[in-house]
Fold this protein.
Amino acid sequence: MKTPKIPQNAPYSDTQRAWLGGFFAGMHSHMLQSANSANKVDARIVNILYGSQTGNSESVANDTAAVAKTHGLSPVVKGMDEIEIDVLAKMENILIITSTYGEGEMPDNAQLLWDQISADSAPRMENTHYSILALGDTSYDEFCKAGMDWDNRLTELGAKRLYDRIDCDVDFEDLAESWIRSVIPMMADGEPVTLVASENGENDKPKYNRKNPFLTNIICNRLLTAENSSKETRHFEFSLQGSGLSYEAGDALNVIPQNCPDLVADIVQALGCTGDEDEPVNGELMSLSEALRTHFEIKLPTKELLKEIANRSGDQELNGLLESGDKNKLTKYLFGRDTLDLLLQFPGMELSAAEFMALLKPLQHRAYSISSSGKMYPDSVHLTVASVRYQSHGRNHKGVCSTYMADLVNENTEVKIFFSPNNTFRVPEDDSLPIIMVGPGTGIAPFRAFLQEREIRKATGKNWLLFGDRNAATDYIYQDEIEAMQANGVLTHLDLAFSRDQQEKIYVQDRMREKGAEMFDWLEQGGSFYVCGDANYMAKDVDKALHDIIEQHGQKTSEQAVDYINHLKKEKRYVRDVY
Ligand SMILES: Cc1cc2nc3c(=O)[nH]c(=O)nc-3n(C[C@H](O)[C@H](O)[C@H](O)COP(=O)(O)OP(=O)(O)OC[C@H]3O[C@@H](n4cnc5c(N)ncnc54)[C@H](O)[C@@H]3O)c2cc1C
Ligand SMILES: NC(=O)c1ccc[n+]([C@@H]2O[C@H](COP(=O)([O-])OP(=O)(O)OC[C@H]3O[C@@H](n4cnc5c(N)ncnc54)[C@H](OP(=O)(O)O)[C@@H]3O)[C@@H](O)[C@H]2O)c1
Ligand SMILES: Cc1cc2nc3c(=O)[nH]c(=O)nc-3n(C[C@H](O)[C@H](O)[C@H](O)COP(=O)(O)O)c2cc1C
């Protein structure tokens, strides 16, 4: 067996190259020893650990494993919630792929392991070699913070970074591929990687994805809230006829929107352009108007655009805010202000079409929790979407994707979609187990799917839905379906919390507390607890209520309640789809 060579064109620093030489030499002698003692060479185990909320990191982890296998490695893919800290500490080779959630937080499935590894009592990891791929989004202040935190902590604990961390923005695929290309040979035989299909060929990869979306039509666009409601929530159905596509209750559907032509026209005018200016976009000449409509995020200003506006306008307030680094003040300043507001506020900046476009980010898809069961509706997929509309700075503002679907699409418009599987957000395999679903507002979406799924599977387990919204008379969405499911026995328990029907706000967590004893009992029976909807306030308050209920009705200390909940999380019996 030959000691592997590091390819000259591999993107390693000199230090990495020097270290790798030793690493591979050590590995060579270790493998020879194994070969001599066992008369065969064991495949090198590579632990691929993912922290993932909506499945991107999990899918990259699986891609990494497929490539590792083709290089004679023995990959073990695990969610971070499937690993004990003492097992982690003994791993020799770790590849971590993690997203960041909330405001610079760990994804749910990584939180417990992170709490343990970041504690003072965490074990040393001198024998570990690792590399990290961080998934994130540069529009968040804490870009890729979870990946950075893991990187810093593993180094502190003595682990050796095999390859520099790569931080990916929303278009993560190319960087992820290049990370895999670089890191796998370091763990294998040093030869450059050709990415090849896994053993099962291309079939185990989704046929349609962000770069190759499925083109379909919206076959139903129905208002769910009443005409006189203070909000607008809609039910959409997309055709899957003839696509060969299928999905599971709990998955998300991504929609690639287009910008509103009126907003495009206003921006073009504010720039002092005609809209006909031809500019290169992805290697193709395109008019400014067309590019702004189909290729760029034009609603919320990027950091780069803000800086340029501050620079060109010389505005003291904006420059002061950017220089101070005070994120809270800047967020407050930007609240409700979009790109057009800024262009109108600072006229005469003389930004050319090309300069303006260079300061924008590519138009992104939006994710939506699917509100139908693929078993009940194999030829369509349903969404429950709140249209984002608000008044600010003297203008009507509209969310890009929610109002693209609501206003701009008709039955003949081709809409681009693709699925994101979410393997952790699933009804239990055991149909006899009870489930508790907390989903106020659009958070009801996956639970409509879960109830359909339980119905079609003839699941005997009890189903408890906690739903809430502003006013019962106008916002009790899917009321007829919910009542029908109560009548046919699928929905065994229902609690409603309409926040604005009385002086004092009533929220789903108030209903939880009222029925705390029964809720604890369901958990003791092996029940699962699901939460969907707002991440910033609702999900945090529901989490607090769950802790309190377990403490009070399980007669536990707060530490014991935390342990109880960690156990639920580990068993994937407390899972969230929050945004
Ligand atoms: C996994 C996942 C599942 C999701 N599921 C659903 C779902 O089932 N249903 C659903 O409706 N949404 C869901 N969302 C949210 C969805 O992806 C979009 O974020 C949402 O539709 C808004 O997108 P938009 O393009 O219409 O708005 P954008 O153009 O992206 O604008 C939204 C932005 O507008 C600003 N804004 C919004 N309201 C106000 C206001 N009142 N005042 C000032 N500024 C404001 C905020 O900056 C906000 O971030 C989900 C998100 C994720 C990540
Ligand atoms: N992170 C985000 O940007 C984010 C998160 C969630 C939703 N949204 C967007 O907001 C729009 C509407 O969303 P939605 O229909 O899902 O929900 P929503 O309208 O925001 O709220 C649904 C219900 O939840 C209540 N609620 C508010 N604060 C709560 C808390 N701390 N705990 C429990 N319940 C609480 C609301 O009451 P009151 O309003 O009366 O207080 C209302 O009754 C959508 O466009 C969605 O995309 C954005
Ligand atoms: C509600 C929400 C919060 C997010 N917060 C951050 C953040 O603070 N920092 C960041 O870099 N990315 C953030 N992201 C972006 C995700 O990390 C990114 O979409 C990633 O690809 C998700 O990967 P996953 O599917 O494996 O969880 C956030 C995304 C959502 C929907």
DSSP finds 21 helices and 21 strands in the chain.
